[in-house]
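Hey all, quick one. A colleague (J.T.) asked me to put the iron/sulfur cluster job into the tracker so the inputs and the structure tokens live in one place instead of scattered across chat threads. No bug as far as I know, just bookkeeping. Sequence used:
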Amino acid sequence: MKYRYENFGGIIASDDPPFLAFVDQEYMRELKLPESKIWEIPNPDVGLLSAPLEVHIALTNQCSGDCPHCYMDSAVADPQELDTPTFKKALKILADMKVFHVALGGGEALEREDLFQIAHYARQIGLVPNLTVSGRGITSDIAQQMTVFGQVNISMDGTGDAYAVFRGKEMFDTADQAIDNLIKAGVPTGINTVLGRRNFDQLPDLFTYARNKGLNEIEILRYKPAGRAAKTYRREACTHEQNIALVPLLGELSQTHGIQAKIDCSFIPMLCWHNPPMEALTGLATYGCEAGNVLLGIRSNGAVAGCSFLKDSGMNVFDYGDGYVRNPALNQLITWEERAPEPCRSCPYLTVCKGGCHAVSMEVSGHLDTPDPDCPRVVEWMQGKGCRP
Ligand code: SF4
Ligand code: SF4
């Protein structure tokens, strides 16, 4: 079991079964863990973590996929891309800060020759490396090497011909073969689906596909206006009606097929619309926008952003050589709640949602402080219907 201290107590983590739990000081003592000096410091910033739990790392900007909706605008390698030893130094900094997971991606991470070297090094220093890739190039041999990862997720926005809905190219068979090879190699495998208005109706087929493959999880990612997708967000994002229908539909599909459906942080407003009990949300450690706190994004050149979909903060991973610090750009994200405008200010879910996806707000309105324009509550408020209790 891994653990780290926080001012409220600590965070404990296990790889098998995989879990992360926030526990109070009393619980840390019950686990017979030594007292921490952090507990002696009166700290008003309870909830602000000493370091991120998970860091999303773009290992390269290179990708031969050329997908029109790429949120990283990936194509060719960034000339400033970190080399193998420098990436290892960056990982060591994260491990020393007691980050638990690193989500490796790109670009196409498999187009970096040192992917496995970097992943093994992450393991060696106590980080759990997870990977998201398209599936291109995952032969049986490569799949066997992928047991180094905690989980490998294959991007798939639809099955059969619908695979190409955003990507514009037929690669379903490639992704399907990669999933078969990974399962055969015993690698925990999942599907990442970018969801927008044109593939919303694909959800039942994706769940059927996942069940037939014996997968146990689908992660649904909101179509976000970052990179090349910034130009098409308004045209491709889910409609208001779909945003409202999403969570009940996922609940139904999840139950029917026995597959866990995960939504990403940006979909929390769509969950909150249905008035779930607050205790259930906090019990499940539901975070809304946790950019710069629970989560951090690192580009292939070492630049740091609050998450992969936000603009660079002006910091670099090597600024953390002496421990985690936040600059004004990251502080602006984590203090958003204090400045929350209506209707978020009056929203009963403000503390767990935190205004929805700030990457969407930034791109659509040009202001980080604007509430998520696609939150169903915000939409109704804008239509003069008031804030839903
Ligand atoms: S009104 Fe604001 S805080 Fe409430 S669910 Fe919507 S985006 Fe989140
Ligand atoms: S801005 Fe916040 S809600 Fe949006 S993707 Fe980043 S961390 Fe998630």
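Adding what we noticed when we looked at it: The radius of gyration is 20 Å. The mean pLDDT is 93.
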